[in-house]
From TrEMBL:
Protein name in the entry: Uncharacterized protein
Domain of life of the organism encoding this protein: Archaea
Amino acid sequence: MGKTQKFHGYNTDIERLATRIETYLTENGFEVAFSKDQTRPVSWCFIQARKLGALRTAAGARRSTDISIRGSPDNFEVSIGTGEWGKNLIMSAPLFVVPVIGIAATLTKIYTAKRFEDNLWKYIKEQANFLRDSGQSGKKETSKASDQREFDCDYVEGYPGWSSQVLGGKLILERQKKGTDQLIFEAPDGKKIQIPAANIEKATIISRKKGLAEHDLMIELTCKDKNKTIHPVINLADDIIAGVLAGINEIVAEDKYLRDMYKN
């Protein structure tokens, strides 16, 4: 390991990119710790990961994969290397262990060093591109109360009260500065589904087994609705589905982290 890549002109929110990397690592069986710039806009994030449980040898207990992101939304660099667990190589700021969020993605669990690094780089590049224009290029942040990302849907099904498949519509991932992050589906006729991030237990990519859309990739949610567990299914274009899944994971992880932080 030991590689750096520069990203120019993306206008990517590097804090959100770091959150998605943290989620990817926890889903793939790693213990994760992080530290970040406390000023705004964030100019650096540092992430450490080490293998969990039986995958961690005695000799490798202190060995970590270190990922650093430095720069501005329009001009930043990502570095991946190895280090010692618990040591922040960028700043003297403390490292915080990321809580396990309990959601899953259909990502292959790969633990060989070369394949792991290749897959991690591929994921980082995809997410940096997916988060284009999510950053604040200037020195001051805007005062927008929420950030919404919209995606066209082919259809949605499996939601209580909707007896048939709803064709078309938009999926909206909403991050709120003050309030509750949520997932919104807006049908062509104006009807809406609003699912708070706190109610989402799991999000996975599945493939339809039969019917006209056989082998179509879809996102299946497992979430709470009025004391019941429901499993709505959202179909999106294959070229964006992994990025949308990462976005759902992001708002769920962020919401859980904030709720845990403000517990008694």
